[in-house]
Specification:
This protein is α/β, with parallel strands linked by helices. The chain folds into three domains: about 1-35; about 45-90 and about 95-135 and about 310-370, no CATH class; about 135-310, Rossmann fold (3-Layer(aba) Sandwich). Helices cover about 35% and strands about 25% of the residues. It has helices at about 1-30, 110-125, 130-135, 155-165, 195-200, 210-225, 245-255, 270-285, 295-310, and strands at about 35-40, 45-50, 50-60, 75-80, 80, 85-90, 95, 140-145, 175-180, 185-190, 230-235, 260-265, 290, 315, 330-335, 345, 350, 370. The strands form four sheets. Strands 3, 6, 7, 14, 16 and 18 form a six-stranded mixed beta sheet that branches. A six-stranded mixed beta sheet has the order 10-9-8-11-12-13, with helices on both faces. Strands 5-4-15-17 form a four-stranded antiparallel beta sheet. Helix 7 (about 245-255) links the parallel strand 11 and strand 12. Helix 4 (about 155-165) runs antiparallel to helix 5 (about 195-200), helix 4 packs parallel to helix 9 (about 295-310) and helix 7 packs parallel to helix 8 (about 270-285). The chain is globular, with a radius of gyration of 24 Å.
């Protein structure tokens, strides 16, 4: 009789223990359902957190770049919520961390906000080197139109792209892709300028143009890399064979923090829809659109992009608690009457992408922050 009671008691203890483990597991799953992935080890919280990175151009009414601004000159809001800058840099110089202590940001009272605040604080303590890697240099992806639109000015376009590659002294790495109906990764991301220049000369003209299909694939490739990312598109005409809508392409670029610059010839001007799409897409991502009349204008456009990359401010922040899991609007303003007259150009928002953390969830203890 006693043995039976002891056995019954052991079964109850085992059941209670299993129930407790299930509750703990369910709580961890609940934490993982949002933007943050959280794990606990020896009393320390380790996280993967989205760091939102912005390339910001500041110009006067004549298009001249305004240099020498400081972090205190910028105010950033996300869905109207003020944000605290985590890093700041200008031009080709290194970005520096601005949040040196955990006490810089006060935690919110709710449980969800405490988790998000712990994410930012832990990242500041554990990920100094990863911050440097996220904001150092620039990775430039060049997407070259080799469709049948290019037959007439193909050699001139190759020359303009080659000159652009040689001039990119501040870029860390460069990739050259070409497209007609399909995408060709002629030179994957590399610091070797000679390799990219050789790749430029190997490109040949193809058939129909699928700009949006191939631009989407280029953006997906670029999104896998850390650091500042830029895609420069040289297009000689409208898209006539893509199945992907340009709105989806623009949203991916915005959410991935990739600035898109487009250089197109006057051929695109013959189709007003393409012109409007090019201008909207580049503006939404913080880039610019150029329409060249001849090969001289093409070279000027490439030179303008090079100058733009050399004068951008690189700012980043960890989002404050925000219940919105959909599209988040970003607004960047300058502080003070003397600066408000200047024009600010950057991407206008993003959509959180929690699926990007799938690979990192296998080892959250050593996780590094990702940039969006």
């Amino acid at each position: 009789m006693i043995d039976h009671r002891v056995s019954t008691l052991k079964e109850k203890i085992v059941s209670i223990t299993k129930f407790g483990l299930l509750l703990s597991f369910g709580f961890l799953l609940l934490l993982e359902s949002g933007d943050r992935v959280v794990a606990q080890e020896e009393g320390h919280i380790h996280v993967i957190v989205n760091m939102v990175q912005l390339n910001v151009a500041v110009t006067d009414k004549n298009g001249n770049y305004i240099t020498g601004l400081t972090p205190k000159d910028f105010v950033i809001t996300e869905d109207g919520i003020p944000q605290k800058l985590a890093t700041f840099g200008e031009g080709s110089g290194p970005a520096r961390s601005l949040m040196a202590a955990v006490g810089d940001v006060k935690p919110e009272p709710s449980a969800a906000d405490v988790v998000e605040q712990a994410s930012a604080n832990s990242s500041l303590l554990d990920s100094r080197q990863s911050l440097d890697s996220l904001v150092a240099g620039a990775n430039v992806f060049i997407l070259f139109d080799t469709s049948n639109y290019m037959y007439r000015g193909f050699v001139f376009a190759q020359d303009a792209i080659a000159d652009f590659v040689r001039s990119l002294e501040t870029a860390d790495k460069i990739a050259l892709y070409s497209y007609s109906r399909d995408l060709s990764r002629v030179a994957t991301l590399t610091p070797d300028r000679a390799q990219v220049l050789r790749a430029v000369r190997t490109t040949v003209a193809g058939d129909e143009a699928a700009l949006y299909n191939t631009l989407l694939l280029t953006l997906r490739d670029a999104a896998h890399y850390q650091g500042r990312k830029v895609v420069v598109v040289f297009s000689n005409g409208p898209d006539n064979s893509s199945v992907v809508p340009p709105e989806d392409v623009a949203e991916l670029a915005q959410s991935s923090g990739i600035s898109v610059y487009m250089i197109s010839t006057q051929q695109a001007r013959l189709e007003p829809v393409s012109t409007a799409v090019f201008e909207r897409m580049t503006a939404a991502t913080g880039g610019k659109a150029y329409f060249a009349k001849n090969w001289r204008d093409e070279k000027k456009a490439f030179a303008s992009i090079r100058d733009d990359l050399g004068h951008l401010y690189s700012v980043a922040y960890y989002p404050q608690p925000n219940p919105n899991r959909g599209w988040r609007s970003i607004n960047v303003k300058l502080v003070g009457d003397a600066l408000r007259k200047y024009h600010v150009r950057t991407r206008n928002g993003y959509r959180p992408q929690p699926t990007r953390f799938a690979a990192a969830r296998t080892d959250t203890a050593d996780a590094k922050p990702e940039a969006q």
